[in-house]
Amino acid sequence: MILNKIHAEHVKKMILLYKKMKRIIEILIFISLLLFFCMTAFSQSYKKLTFNDFKRAPKSAGNRDEIAFTSCSIEYSYLTKKEKDYYTLTFTIKLIVNTDKSWIDRSKVTSKKIMTQLLNHEQGHYNIAYLEQQELLLTVKHTVFYDDYIDAANKIFATINAKYRDLNIEYDADTQNSTNKAKQHKWDIYFQKKLTESLDNDAYRYYSRSAPNEKDLTIGTQLAFLDDFKFYKPSI
Fold first, then answer.
1. Which are the contacts of 129, defined by CB distance < 8 A and separation ≥ 6?
2. Are residues 128 and 209 in the same domain?
3. Average pLDDT of the chain?
4. SS (H, E, C) 77-145
5. Domain for residue 235, yes or no?
């Protein structure tokens, strides 16, 4: 009888332990799924353009050699928190493909090969916008903001946007709107290299500034760094 009682108590304890372990496993599975979906959401920053991203009717005026146009825009916002002698800015920087403003002149696309080449060239314009977004994220992350944070943030965005706007113009001129295949290939290699370096940054990532330290760059130093930074376009 005593042995049966001990055995019953042992079984009861094992059942309780099993239920606790089962609950812990369920919680861990839930957390894993939650992290998976969060990571999935944050990993959708880079986009591969398709034919369906060009929904606007083609323009009849302007450059007659132009048979496609990709419209991308970058939206940003931030929350501020006053610290002792500086401000913490938490940024949201979002890259958007404006499908209602992007177009392809389908009458000039006479083969699947031409469409593939055209989409590849337009992908380059998206790549430039994506690289701009990533540099913005990196720059604000390493900038300490003070009382003039509004002007400082606006200046950062204006400076970087101007640089990539010029790169867009240079890209079209250098590749002759994708007709120069050798130049286009050089740019494709250039984009692949730059994207490999920055694809770990996400378009919807939030950056919160911590307290300034010796490694932080002041706004003046940061903008000087941006002025010194040059794009070396692919050479043939």
1. 72, 73, 74, 95, 164
2. yes
3. 76
4. EEEEEECCCCEEEEEEEEEEECCCCCEECHHHCCCHHHHHHHHHHHHHHHHHHHHHHHHHHHHHHCECE
5. no
The percentage of the chain sitting over the pLDDT mark of 90, rounded to a whole number, equals: 59
Nearby residues of 77 by Cβ (< 8 Å), 6 or more positions away? 91, 92
Q: 99 and 33: one domain?
A: no
Q: Which of 135, 124, 113, 130 is closest to 188 using CA atoms? A: 124
Q: Are residues 50 and 148 in the same domain?
A: yes
Long-range contacts of 105-108 (CB under 8 A, 24+ apart): 105/58, 105/67, 105/68, 106/58, 107/58, 108/67
Both 142 and 29 in one domain: the answer is no
Cβ burial, residue 164 (10 Å; 0-12/13-18/19+): buried
Q: Which amino acid is at 30?
A: F
Label residue 16 by pLDDT band (50, 70, 90): low
* Selected residue with higher pLDDT from 30 and 81: 81
Q: Sort 151 into a burial class: Cβ within 10 Å, 0-12 / 13-18 / 19+.
A: exposed
* pLDDT (tens digit per residue) in 150-177: 999 999 999 999 999 999 999 999 999 9
Residue-number span of the structural domain to which 38 is assigned: 1-42
Q: Is the pLDDT of residue 142 over 50?
A: yes
- What does the block give as tokens for 109? 């696309």
